[in-house]
């Protein structure tokens, strides 16, 4: 078997793609199945990665049970930041639930700073629909009785999706710099500062974002909001994850 064989549909004349095409169909299927099985094992492991012991989680548990000691798990400044998060700043509109994400896609207007940014969701859908490993492929785990309906049956592509990217979780965000899909912001302070004036940027093309508005926070309020975001860091989880990776 060629050592460098792999399908490269975007560059069909690449030596690696030519080597892949030279393989018999059964061999290609066998190789694909190995990759699919490996991906499923990784996905199963990722489902076990759950972060629920941050200072905020302990604070929330204390509020629920009336445990005053746990209510002191976050600082006064962080509590002010939480109030801003669910109130004046409106962060909770997109970052809510256990994972602090609405699971939706939004346009962040970053192309005003860096022209020619990728199409995000618009391009992603096109790639997903033709992906040989998507949920309509022979590699899914659906029952063979025909009862399964792929989520792709409900996916459509609209020009309005250009520039949209999925809302990330805020858990352990302090550990995931740089930020934004461009990686252009290096700190949470910069992220909050960007959103603080985001209404000054106009949506491009056909998309008009209706959720994101300038936060209009004072410097002190921005600091409180960052302090709250820092309470979403689960150090015990990160330590456990690090040990499991060894």
CATH topology term of the largest domain: Cytochrome Bc1 Complex, Chain D, domain 2
Biggest beta-sheet profile: 2 strands, antiparallel
In the CATH hierarchy, what is the superfamily of the largest domain? Answer: Cytochrome c-like domain
Indicate the radius of gyration in whole angstroms.
Answer: 22 Å
User: Tally the helices: what do you get?
Assistant: 9
Q: Please state how the strands of the largest beta sheet are arranged side by side.
A: 1-2
Low-confidence stretches: none
Task: Bin the helical content.
Answer: 25-40%
Q: Could you tell me the mean pLDDT?
A: 88
Class based on secondary structure composition and strand pairing: mainly alpha
Shape summary: globular
Please tally the β strands and state the result.
Answer: 2
Question: Under the CATH scheme, which architecture of the largest domain would be assigned?
Answer: Orthogonal Bundle
What is the succession of H and E elements? HHHHHEHEHHH
- Counted up, domains total 2
**What's the CATH class label of the largest domain?**
Mainly Alpha
> Ends: how far apart?
32 Å
| Strand residues, percent | under 5%
Organism: uncultured Thiotrichaceae bacterium
InterPro entries: Cyt_c-like_dom_sf (IPR036909), Cytochrome_c_Peroxidase/MauG (IPR051395)
Protein name: Cytochrome c551 peroxidase (EC)
GO molecular function: cytochrome-c peroxidase activity; electron transfer activity; heme binding
